[in-house]
Amino acid sequence: MSVAIIDYGSGNLHSAAKAFERAARGMEVPEKVIVTRDPETVYRADRIVLPGVGAFADCRKGLDALDGMVDAMTEAVRNKARPFLGICVGMQLMATRGKEHVTTEGLNWIEGDVVKITPREENFKIPHMGWNTLDMVREHPVLERLPLGPKGRHAYFVHSYHLNAVNEADVLASADYGGAVTAIVGRDTMIGTQFHPEKSQRFGLALISNFLKWKP
Amino acid sequence: MFKMRVIPCLDVKDGRVVKGINFVDLRDAGDPVEAAVAYDAAGADELCFLDINATHENRGTMMDVVRRTAEACFMPLTVGGGVRTIDDIKALLRAGADKVSINSAAVANREFVKQAAEKFGEQCIVVAIDAKRVKRGGGGERWEIFTHGGRNSTGIDAVEFAQEVVSLGAGEILLTSMDRDGTRSGFDIPLTQAVADSINVPVIASGGVGNLDHLVEGIKSGHATAVLAASIFHFGEFTIREAKDHMVRAGLPMRLDP
């Protein structure tokens, strides 16, 4: 079994790879973690991870710069039903459009726009930067046995924009930051987290383990 | 619920922690990676590495520290010290840093903050401000930006500078009072509050922590959303957990995950 982490020049690839390696080591059937820029490798992988740190438009440009990558991902996820995890901007790229500074086309896997978060009160600073609990909206195998809710564990967020999903059914969890912020989206064989599981200590590693075990 | 953050900061020189870390049994008290692992286990909310003699020649040493930290710790890491170019930021982020802190390069060239935020996103650009009280003509006071460890005055007003770098894309301000740094007499609360209330990005209060009440004051009175401290943690006076328990008793929302 293999999990391909797409290297498209965006941010914290090294941390993401190390967290997946750590989680994979604890599996009954160890998964091979491959960091790759090669569309063919992504197409053949059993699981696909799109990490992401940075601005939406810049990340989209980076992804498009890898010839054939978007097609390979789309084919693998949409037609071959490979499990997919998008992280932070990698999750936002699943949306129809990004509206960070400029309007940029997303992958359009989850219908909706990526828009600036707008807390009700002004004492909520932007970016939403730090640890927050998650409120489960819909059960999902990747969230199994994770302590969620106001008394649950925390996930680490660093973002100013979030995915405003058109279909409520696509939202699996939210975080409260002066209003609901989309924390996890998912449909079919894909899931995306606005927070950084690779930076969320034990909670994050547990979520990554669940993703590696997930057989949709 | 969103939580306030406690951030231990490690001064790193030539790949070694300055003065060492004494709160747990470490094989090597001077190894930043071992210290990072210990703080990760202790429940720190983020870690901050400050490369205090960053030069072009020793850049690789810090990269190695960041890389090894990211292999062992799955928590947020900010790295600062000598960050001057887009390539510096790219290399630190790729090595495993989540945020980079820009100090004198932001003072020298504000455009750099803008370029960095456009390239990497506002969320990973921290501007570190070192401020000191100065007497104005007429008896008033204000805070000015100092560089080079507090030796060089720039004449720039700290509050105005904070507003300016935020408008250019800084996603967070790491605010250090040069008057309080090392004094253990608490944060400069009026400074922290003046900056925090004038901008809409998170402020990390820094400089002067000597006891746990100081951490509470930084958030309650200073309106910071994160507090940074070094010696009270490094020398084992207080654990991260003791600090957070104290802050919870004072009514602050803190993360107490095991």
In short:
The complex is a heterodimer of chains A (216) and B (258). Chain A has 216 residues and is α/β, with parallel strands linked by helices.
Structure description:
With 216 residues, chain A is an alpha/beta fold. Chain A has helices at residues 13-25, 39-44, 56-64, 69-79, 89-92, 201-213, and strands at 2-6, 32-36, 47-50, 84-87, 95-98, 104-105, 110-116, 128-133, 135-136, 154-159, 161-165, 171-176, 180-187, 190-193. Chain A is globular, with a radius of gyration of 16 Å. The model of chain A has no long low-confidence stretch (mean pLDDT 94). Chain B is of the alpha/beta class. Chain B is built from ten helices and eleven strands. An eight-stranded parallel β-barrel of chain B has the order 1-3-4-5-6-9-10-11, surrounded by eight helices. The longest helix of chain B is centred in the first third of the chain and has 14 residues, at 59-72. The two termini of chain B are 17 Å apart. Chain A binds chain B through residues 11-15, 18-19, 22, 53-55, 58, 89, 101, 122, 124-133, 150, 153-154, 156, 158-160, 175-177, 196, 198-205, and chain B through 1-5, 40, 45, 67, 70-71, 74-76, 93-99, 118-124, 171-172, 200-203, 225-226, 255, 257-258.
